[in-house]
Design brief:
The chain is globular, with a radius of gyration of 16 Å. By secondary structure, it is mostly beta strands. Strands 1, 2, 3, 4, 5, 6 and 7 form a seven-stranded mixed β-sheet that branches. It has helices at about 45-60, 130-135; strands spanning about 1-15, 20-25, 30-35, 35-40, 60-80, 85-100, 115-120. It is built from two helices and seven strands; from the N terminus they run ββββαβββα.
Length: about 160
């Protein structure tokens, strides 16, 4: 069985009662709303991942203001020719505040639209489960300012 580990970082950005989401094609082709964010590149700090992914998917620069939750998911999937994959996803969800940029869709990436949605309308959207996990207060780590975990002298991506 093939083992696969994916670590990703996402942000919950709320402004004026609205949540920032990105739209992605679902496994069955039906578009679904996701938290902006995505997979870490090798050697990248998750703090930098969330900044890079938010800029790519939404056009916004953010300031990370807190750590909301860390969620782990494990799935064993059947693949072609009878091969199976044991997939584990570790998802780090930050709280973020938009500090600059302009809302725009991602070009040539995993999402095709970014938009603000009223918080009370989110339950009616076709969305991935991580949206609900991140918004459920019981999953949140006590909301304290988190330290920048990058090595001394590291420059955030992008500078904000």
């Amino acid at each position: 069985m093939r083992e696969n580990l994916r670590v990703a970082a996402y942000a919950v950005c709320v402004r004026d009662g609205q949540l920032l989401l990105a739209r992605s094609p679902g496994p069955d082709g039906v578009p679904e709303w996701v938290l902006p964010g995505g997979g870490m590149e090798h050697g990248e700090d998750p703090y930098d991942t969330v900044h890079r992914e938010l800029l790519e998917e939404t056009g916004y620069r953010i300031r990370v203001t807190g750590l909301l939750c860390v969620h782990s998911l494990r799935l064993v999937r059947a693949r072609r020719a009878g091969r199976r994959t044991d997939h584990q996803g570790v998802r780090i969800v930050y709280e973020g505040e938009v500090t600059g940029g302009e809302l725009r869709p991602e070009v040539g990436g995993s999402t095709d639209l970014a938009a603000w949605h009223d918080l009370d309308a989110v339950p009616r959207l076709v969305r991935v489960p991580l949206v609900d996990i991140a918004l459920r207060p019981g999953t949140w780590i006590p909301r304290t300012r988190i330290p920048d975990t990058r090595p001394p002298g590291a420059v955030p991506y992008p500078k904000t």
